[in-house]
Design goal:
The protein is an alpha/beta fold and 502 residues long. It is built from 20 helices and 13 strands. The strands form four sheets. A seven-stranded parallel beta sheet has the order 3-2-1-4-5-7-11, sandwiched between helices. Strands 6-13 form a two-stranded parallel sheet. A two-stranded parallel ribbon has the order 8-10. The chain is elongated and about 100 Å long. It starts with a helix and ends in a 6-residue tail after the last helix. The structure holds ligand LQLD3KLK and NADPH dihydro-nicotinamide-adenine-dinucleotide phosphate. This is Fatty acyl-CoA reductase.
Length: 502
């Protein structure tokens, strides 16, 4: 019997961000391995016209929860969705709900965050810093609380090259930042943002670093731990390989490549692609919850959940394997054949942008206009290249994360727990993982049918023929123009192929 699974039995667990990528996999694993848990409270806001209940039903009806529902058939009764908006100062939780949460909660997993790199600083601070502070305040009033687990990111100190499992101080105190966001207007915030974030690449990593400081400063008397995952990718093994449901991390760019929009990327092939499967992050998080509650470490422990130091994969290898997978499992209705280059040179990137991105987009829009349709490709390309530019920082650098606490924790687990809550990234076979990842994107994100693969392959063949035809036509036109305008070209040509009558 797994000690960790048994630990969560009978517990009341509060999860923020449960409707997000990580939160859903966390809930699923809890229900599947500890079906006798008492209740999972999730803080949810209504979204896209759906009520809280509709959101919960949609999550539970997804393929992700099929196995969990077999093990725990009354999963609907064990989830309690609590209305909350972490953007509001009082978190918008009703008095009655607050009373219940305060009196019953045993464990808190705080996953909610804005993960957008370009979010306005005010919003990023509100969610990633102020909401964390408010939750810690709530946690301090929970008499039955055993552990508070905060999910941060391994990139919260990405301005450093070597990162230890410690909290690094930020130049300006989080409290001062929180206060200033309350009275500064948007224009001034925009102006001071670059100065405040300093050598951090964006407001996301900056506010996640501030969030960690808040945990350290205000989680004083609580049993707190921080988990820092790197780039969270599709599931490796559990509940099944390849599950993913959003465009974050590599997923969006894999789609853009598979659909033939993205043909070149400014990336360093030998930089470490520190992707970590979401099920590994969840297993570590649950193990951390157990250890923090049972062992009660004297200080706040930080756990790096990264792959690079134990089982590195590189962007070049990852890109190569992604392309190889498209040969076997192509995406439907591609714009061009998937074939991308990784280049680390800015000039080459600009050349490829002009030739492989803008030129085809302009030509295609011209064709759409000619056929009476609305042009859309240049707009799409514009958005794609803006997205790529935001991600470039992370695909042209490598970081070293020490993983002493994570390794220490692994050594404390029984063999059964090491199996059920496996977070040993050394066991991961990257080639297999990447193939399943691409397959998962096709099935669960793009919702494409596997039966359509032969037609998708036919479509790629047609695109290849169009490509050859286009290149041949281009060559002939260039040759004709050259022959018409340059005596030297004519001389060279007649030297190589003398006319018959000479
Ligand atoms: C030797 C050589 C070998 C040769 C082989 C070479 C072969 C090469 C082949 C290449 C194959 C490619 C495969 C590899 C890809 C690697 C790339 C991986 C990059 C990963 C970097 C991530 C680093 C993360 C580090 C930090 C970890 C965290 O904690 S962060 C959590 C994750 N957060 C994110 O991933 C970012 C979230 N998104 C954003 O910040 C924003 O959305 C944005 C800045 C990306 C865009 O914002 P904007 O305001 O402009 O628009 P928005 O409304 O948000 O979206 C616009 C449209 O873009 C779509 N979108 C959103 N996110 C992404 C995304 N990540 N990728 C692609 N597209 C995205 C979004 O849906 C919108 O679309 P529409 O709905 O159609 O409008
Ligand atoms: N994905 C990644 O690559 C990485 C993620 N992380 C960290 O992991 C955690 C989870 O990330 P991930 O699951 O990927 O992110 P998602 O964007 O998928 O999920 C974010 C969650 O936060 C919730 N949330 C956002 N704003 C509010 C709000 N105002 N009130 C209530 N809830 C809100 C979202 O709810 P809603 O559905 O209503 O929007 C959603 O449930 C984050 O802390 C992130 O920093 C760390 C490293 C990498």
């Amino acid at each position: 019997m797994s000690t960790i699974a048994a630990f969560y039995g009978g517990k009341s667990i509060l999860i923020t961000g449960a409707t997000g990528f990580l939160g859903k996999v966390l809930m699923e694993k809890l229900f599947r391995t500890s079906p006798d848990l008492k209740v999972i409270y999730i803080l949810v806001r209504p979204k896209a016209g759906q009520t809280l209940q509709q959101r919960v039903v949609q999550i539970l009806n997804s393929k992700l929860f099929e196995k969990a529902k077999e093990v725990c058939p009354n999963v609907h009764e064990k989830i309690r969705a609590v209305y909350a908006d972490l953007n509001q100062n009082d978190l918008a939780i009703s008095k009655g709900d607050m009373q219940e949460l305060l009196s019953c909660t045993n464990i808190v997993f705080h996953c909610a965050a804005t993960v957008r790199f370009n979010d306005h600083l005010r919003h990023a601070v509100q969610l990633n810093v102020t909401a964390t502070q408010k939750l810690l305040l709530m946690a301090s009033q929970m008499p039955k609380l055993e552990a508070f687990i905060h999910i941060s990111t391994a990139f919260s100190n990405c301005n450093l090259k070597h990162i230890d499992e410690v909290i690094y101080p930020c130049p300006v105190e989080p409290k001062k930042i929180i206060d200033s966001m309350e009275w500064l207007d948007d224009a001034i915030i925009d102006e001071i943002t670059p100065k405040l974030i300093g050598d951090q690449p964006n407001t996301y990593t900056y506010t996640k670093a501030l969030g960690e400081m808040v945990v350290q400063q205000e989680g004083g008397n609580l049993n707190v731990a921080i988990v820092r995952p790197s780039i969270v990718g599709a599931t490796w093994q559990e509940p099944f390989p390849g599950w993913v449901d959003n465009l974050n991390g590599p997923s969006g760019l894999i789609i853009a490549t598979g659909k033939g929009f993205l043909r070149a990327l400014r990336a360093t092939p030998m930089a470490v692609a520190d992707v970590i499967p979401v099920d590994i992050v969840v297993n570590l998080t649950l193990a951390v919850g157990w250890y923090t509650a049972v062992q009660r470490p004297k200080s706040t422990l930080i756990y790096h959940c990264t792959s690079g130091n134990l089982n590195p994969c590189y962007w070049g290898k990852m890109g190569f394997q992604v392309l190889a997978t498209f040969e076997k499992i192509p995406f439907e209705r591609a714009f061009r054949r998937p074939n991308a280059d990784l280049t680390s040179n800015t000039f080459t990137t600009q050349y490829w942008n002009a030739v492989s991105h803008w030129a085809p987009a302009i030509i295609y829009d011209f064709y759409l206009r000619l056929t009476g349709r609305k042009p859309r490709m240049t707009k799409l390309m514009n958005r794609l290249l803006r997205t790529v530019s935001m991600l470039e920082y992370f695909i042209n650098r490598s970081w070293e994360w020490s993983t002493c606490n994570t390794e220490m924790l692994m050594s404390k687990l029984s063999p059964e727990d090491q199996r059920v809550f496996n977070f040993d990234v050394r066991q991961l076979n990257w080639l297999e993982y990447i193939e399943n990842y691409v397959l998962g994107i096709k099935k669960y994100l793009l919702k494409e049918d596997m039966a359509g693969i032969p037609e998708a392959k036919q479509h790629l063949k047609r695109l290849r023929n169009i490509h050859y035809l286009f290149n041949t036509a281009l060559f002939l036109i260039a040759w004709r123009l050259l022959m018409a305008r340059s005596q030297m070209a004519r001389n060279v040509w007649f030297f190589i192929c003398p006319p018959y009558n000479l």
